[in-house]
Amino acid sequence: MNAVFPGSFDPITSGHMDVLTRAAKMFEHVTLTVMHNARKQGKHLFTLEERLEILRAATAHLPNVSVDSFSGLLVDYMRQQQKSIILRGLRAVSDYEYELQIAHLNRQIGDAETVFIMAATRWSFVSSSMVREIASYGGDVSEMVPRASAEALRAKFADVYAERSGQTVSPES
């Protein structure tokens, strides 16, 4: 059985990786799929290409995981890929209420089943938006994200990290 794990992954977190790693043990193959939403163009920290690169680096150790992207309805992507299982991670009850509605809609319009995996308790408070916020102030997010995400965040906010550590950054860098 194969599953699709959709998300914006801006960036992928340790919670995402926890769910993905556990799913990779349960499914023959998992496709990590970055949703490309034209209405959110310019609202992501990382471009689609950057996110795909980060995901490939973060998942290189998982042989049955691949990375892809799509735009449009997830159920259309599922049909095109001939897959019927959507994987979603849950952190808290509030996630469940939101994800349950989407799961019912996906089953109704696309005959896709959703499998929920609870993120480990230690990651229940971590979200991509919180990680971006902390990194934007030069905070240490290395425990909350895989190495590829941490490196990308440090590069994206290099001036903030340099300033915080007392270094100067030349305008050319």
Mean pLDDT: 92
CATH domain topology? Rossmann fold
Overall CATH architecture: 3-Layer(aba) Sandwich
Radius of gyration, Cα only, in angstroms?
17 Å
How does the major sheet shape up? 3 strands, parallel
Structural class computed from helices and strand pairing: alpha/beta
Number of domains: 1
How much beta, percentage-wise?
A: 15-25%
Helix percent reads 40-55%
N-to-C order of helices and strands:
EHEHEHEHEHHH
Q: Which superfamily, in CATH terms, is the homologous superfamily?
A: HUPs
- Overall CATH class: Alpha Beta
Low-confidence stretches: none
Count of distinct strands: 5
**Widest beta sheet: strand line-up:** 1-2-3
Distance between the termini: 47 Å
CA-based shape: globular
Q: What is the tally of helical segments?
A: 7
How would you sum up this structure in a few lines?
It is globular and about 55 Å long. With 173 residues, the chain is α/β, with parallel strands linked by helices.
Which terms summarize this structure?
44% helix, 173 residues, 7 helices, 5 strands, globular, two-stranded parallel sheet, alpha/beta, three-stranded parallel beta sheet
What do you see in this structure?
It is a single chain. The protein has helices at 14-26, 48-58, 74-81, 93-110, 128-136, 147-156, 158-164, and strands spanning 2-7, 29-35, 65-70, 85-90, 113-118. With 173 residues, the protein is an alpha/beta fold. The chain has one domain (2-164): Rossmann fold (3-Layer(aba) Sandwich). The strands form two sheets. It has a three-stranded parallel sheet with strand order 1-2-3, sandwiched between helices. It has a two-stranded parallel ribbon with strand order 4-5. Helix 2 (48-58) runs antiparallel to helix 6. The chain is globular.
